[in-house]
Amino acid sequence: MRPSYLLSGLALALALAGTARADPVLASGDTTKPSETIIVTPVSSNVYEIGAAARVDVTYDPNAGPWIKTLVGVDPGPVTNPTPAQLIENLHVVGRAWTDWHQEITTPLWHWLVEGININIPNTTWVFSNEFRTVDFIFPNPLPESTQITISKWFSGPAGTGPQNVVIQQWPTVPEPGTIALLLTGLLAAGLGYIWRRRK
């Protein structure tokens, strides 16, 4: 077999295996900055999954805009069925710790469903706003680098919704510098108090 055939076969095998991308997705909530956009096709009639074979690395970057996902139909074409659909995402925190993860459906009339939200981070709370088009996940403690996140959500459009793509923008937030300073001050005070008690 020629070397070129071997290289082509290896490239195809790696693609089918879903190897992780070399660079992480860069994202923040600043919509004035350039955004990375991906097209997502369903794995079945009403289920979308991202990062099933290899988790997607995501890092906070103030110079980037929200990470934009465009969900399309099976064809692929516009989503035509307003029956509730599921979005499953397998993510990997890279870089600075996350305090929150935000997801907003920007397609008019589509929204998240209150029922059926699952996340693998214990004690996480979530808040809906913007007529249930935005959901904010709030982590009890900032998620450090290398944290693996799996989030499952359901979304829907109203009956009679015409064919259209469903666009979702997502981004993490990180601790503010003042918050980090207060946290370090608190840890230092606790450590000094422990040392002082031990010496008494």
Give the helix proportion (percent range).
Answer: 10-25%
Oligomer designation: single chain
Overall geometry = globular
CATH topology, anyone? Immunoglobulin-like
Give the count of helical stretches.
Answer: 2
- What average pLDDT do the residues reach? 81
Element-level helix/strand string: HEEEEEEEEEEEEEH
Tell me about the biggest sheet?
Answer: 7 strands, mixed
Q: Which structural class fits the helix and strand makeup?
A: alpha/beta
Instruction: Write down the domain tally.
Output: 1
Low-pLDDT windows of residues: 1-19, 179-184
Give the beta-strand count: 13
**Proportion of residues in extended strands:** 35-45%
Overall CATH class: Mainly Beta
Characterization of the model:
This protein is α/β, with parallel strands linked by helices and 200 residues long. The chain has a single domain, classed as Immunoglobulin-like (Sandwich). The protein is 19% helix and 38% strand. The chain is built from 2 helices and 13 strands; from the N terminus they run αβββββββββββββα. It starts with a helix and ends with a helix.
Brief summary of the model shown:
The chain is α/β, with parallel strands linked by helices. It has two helices and 13 strands.
List keywords for this structure.
single chain, 200 residues, alpha/beta, Immunoglobulin-like, seven-stranded mixed β-sheet, disordered N terminus
How are the SSEs placed, and which strands pair?
Elements (H helix, E strand, L loop, with lengths): L2 H15 L7 E3 L9 E4 L6 E4 L5 E5 L6 E5 L13 E10 L3 E8 L5 E2 L5 E2 L5 E5 L4 E10 L4 E9 L9 E8 L3 H23 L1
Parallel strand pairs: 1-4, 2-5, 3-6, 4-6
Antiparallel strand pairs: 5-13, 6-12, 7-11, 7-13, 8-12, 9-12, 10-11
